[in-house]
Structures
1.
Amino acid sequence: MTRFSLSVAAAVAALLLTVTPVAAVPGWSTPLSVFTARFGPAHSMALDSHGHPLIASEGGLHPGIWLTTNQPSGGGGASWFNLQLTHKNDAAPSIAVWNDRFYIAFVRLDPNNGHSLGLWTATNATGTVVVTKLDSGPDYSPSVAVRNGRWAIAFHQAGSHHRLVYINNLGGTWQSETVDGTCCHGTLSLRLDSAGNPRIAYSDGGPQTSTGLKYAARSGAGTWAFQTVDTRQVDTPTLVLDSNQKPHIVYVWISNGIWYAVRGASWTVSHVNNAFLNTPDMALDASGHASIVTGNNGEITYVTNSGTGWASTQLTFTHTDSQPEIETYQGKSKVIFNRESGGSGDGIYFMKQL
């Protein structure tokens, strides 16, 4: 277990950032470079109660998990800053926020062969950053959720077959269970419903042998129920629950674009656009309407549906952008993405709806 003070570390390690001049899209802020890193670091974003973004990411050429935020309580005032949380070969961070504190799950990789050395967490829940090893693995693709300051994490565990594992300390002690013993690949997406019950979207089968998009929901009695949402070869789902606890999932149908599924009396699936090279992401407005970001051919697109069909706005035009994520606050969207031009401006960029 590693501990250090967030305020002291921020004072020593924070890097104040400046705007990179890029043409703005009407209704959106100019893209802002918030973290400089090469090779498209994996990242995850959540918002605090005031709408400040907290971004967990890999470090690119600087190993470890990094936190990027403009959250005033983090020691950076109104400016963006970067804080290195770990210094190992760590990857695939997933972040959640509770009571304006961050909770990050990630995997540690062997620097010699890239194999997983287990599942780790980092949090400043007590005011001091604490880094803890949870599982020896080999674990991959964690997705984290938090309720009342306690953890819930779903992840893949490799073996003779990949299995889907769910661990949590929602009841006060850590519990672990196998959700699906013969699955899965790619990223997955965990959410907790209003009662604290887990729901998970994941791709079944292997990378080239996907047998469909699965949705797993556990009841309060601890029983898992499974539904097949789409039987085609799919990948990289994002799950969001609306205010009525109805699941919405956006995902890639491999080589056939971005698709969106919502559960009513049954699952309804619709085609969003033809972007399939990057993971899509989704947020919902107060009415349960989806806002989706996609990346294709180096361009980021924002797609919405207010009930009359999908409408698209292209956000970037540099042909160097990928891996977008989205969150909403008070009806306005906030987006991050990677820029990979091979130059000094590479890294994570942020833009928001005005």
2.
Amino acid sequence: MRWPLSLSSDRSPVRDAVDWDKHGKLHRNRTKKSHELDLPLPFTECLSFMGPKWHFFSIWLGWRWGKTNDRHRASTLTTVVIAAGMAVLMIGLSTGKGLQEAIHQRITALQGDAQIRSYHQPNAFESTAFDWTTSKRAIPPDIKPIAMSWKQGIVAFEGSMQGAQCIGYSQWPQWLNQGLTQGSLPESADYMEVLISEDMARKLNLEVNDELQLYFQREGAQRPIMRYATLSGLFNTHMQEWDGQWLITHLSHMQLIQQLDSHQVGGLILHGEQVQKEQAMASIRGLLPMNLDLYQPQQDYPQLYQWLELFDTNTAVLASILIIIAAFNAAVVVFVLVVARAKHIAILRTMGMSARQINWAFVGHLGRDVAKGLLWGNLIGLALLYAQFQFQILELDPVTYYVDHVPVAWDWWSFLMANLLVFTTVTVTAWLPSRILAKIRPADVLRMS
């Protein structure tokens, strides 16, 4: 038995007897025979048999490295960075989505999921009346529309005046029952009773049961219409655009002020999932008369929904920054591990493993730390989100954000995709040190050790 080459050579004795092709398959070198090696024949046959399965062996080897090196500072740093990044990413996804849904739900509660109104609206201060019976067949049978009509006016009390949009409803929307803070809903259809916001009542120094005056402009040079009304209650929608100008009463009073018949209204409010789908909306539009159209809140308040869409951009930027930080940290950790495992790498290279196959071992090593970081990050993120969901710890200014606390949305699909994205991106960075592995000379490393 003899060694064909000494350990000082760049090539190992195993590689003189066997060669690896670019596909990872093992081929015997015809210039050397297996009995010329200082290795038993069964070992070389084992290498030949395991050639196609080196990836699994490499990953298992890296996993064992990580198991015996749990207290290494580099591994701990990777776990901590990924856990913190994953927790922050989950919180950002959940709160961003939750804020979008909460504001949209608040708007649809006030404005409906859709409204049927006149296609031509020449006056923005007064609704254009139409016969609501002509649109009855276009409305799905399981949806009960709320008829409304509005007109711009002035509220006066003891010398103070405030502009207001006076809206009359055929039946009280559900949000009024939830947003009523003082008094009660108007009950009398004969005498005019109204609701105003707390903000408007504070500006006019009004209290429940006070009598106020309403003025409405007429066409031409005619004198304005004046009505006396009793303040029956106060409401608060937490939305400044509506609280600052809405005055609510029964539809019959607005029809009388606008000189409309009982079947003439300014719009129909629709609530239901049916009107949120494009196909259902197209079907409703097809059955409406030519002078009517179906409007969604996105069409009435485009700037507000453009602002909501910026939350997605902010979340994407946050996710990109966190993933880049985690990936950079992973690359540094792998570099440190390569230096720390230089002797092991040299022995494995001498035994016949290529740089690519050893790189798979570091993928397995890093994958263990990434999995631990994702596990802890998910646990921390879900715990913090659950605490906010139950106790509403973080509060918001309702004047700016339309809600009084940070809402939480349980978007499990986004959570899953975020975990897969972080795991894939960070694990791929383990391939970056491949050039370092290719430059390691087993003979030099073993001679120095």
3.
Amino acid sequence: MRVLIACEYSGAVRDAFIALGHDAMSCDLLPTDVPGPHYQGDVRDVIGGGVGPDDRAPTMHLPER
């Protein structure tokens, strides 16, 4: 499954999905803490409509406060 982890810069959730065999990418306004598939910018730039073969299932990972 193609997965987009939004609001995540640590790479922890992204890397967990990759370890399970998924095509995962993180996205945040901040750069990633560890190398890996990451988009630095607004999630709306990469989120798809969720119906095409190239779309990723969005997963929101909001930081704890």
4.
Amino acid sequence: MKDKKLKELQRIMDEVIDDDEPDYEKDDEHGRNRLHAWVFMQKGKRDLQESFFIEPSTGRKYTIDQCEYYTIESIFNHKNYWVNMETERPIREINFDFENDNTGEWEYVMINQDDKKDDEDEENEDEEEEEDGEVGGTEDEVLDMPPSWSPKLFVSRDKFIQLCPKGEKTVYFKMCKVEFFSDCTQVDGLVKKVTIYEDYKRIITREVRCYFRNRRDKLLMRRRFPFLFKTIEHYGSSEKQNYLKKLIQVDDQYRKMWYYHHRVHDNLIYREE
């Protein structure tokens, strides 16, 4: 009887992720044979100081030294596709300057028409110009790519404005839930709602943030703390009405209000009740 209970307890511990160990992950049975896609941010662009990976399944950021990947088979962007010719090397020893690689570690697939050799002789250049003149100035096709197998994508204006099916979308993160709404679909002008939880099971709510748009009272964001009975509201600027800038309210305790500087009829900036 005890052995059964111990086995059942061990099975539960192996399969259930407790709140105390949120980052626990079981070993992958496929190991190096599993292919996976990720996002690689290269340093030097967008003022990045170092290169790092973004794991799409979790949204977490990993540096090259801290990432959990074994190696890289290929990298691609909007310009080209590069294949790693030395996949047996660990990821920490890979040269990530694949665009300017001259060692043979990376091989590109698409030939860039802008990349031309500068060590050509002047005689060869003259001969090429003569040949181009005889043909009639036609440009050579560097790489004839096959047509796309999928038809041309078309999105109607109504679908584009909705942003997501039926105008609503919910995304779950660790200790967080984000809800998106299209413009003018909610009565109160709600466009995004972020719910932050205290636990990993998303039961105890710590904070709710609501973002608004196209409201008459210029309300932009409302933050609610249910267990503190506290509400914080931020308003946009308006020169004609609704001079309120920020509101902090705790039920049955106090209310603090800040106003914009262009409230000219009484020059009120701050009020507490």
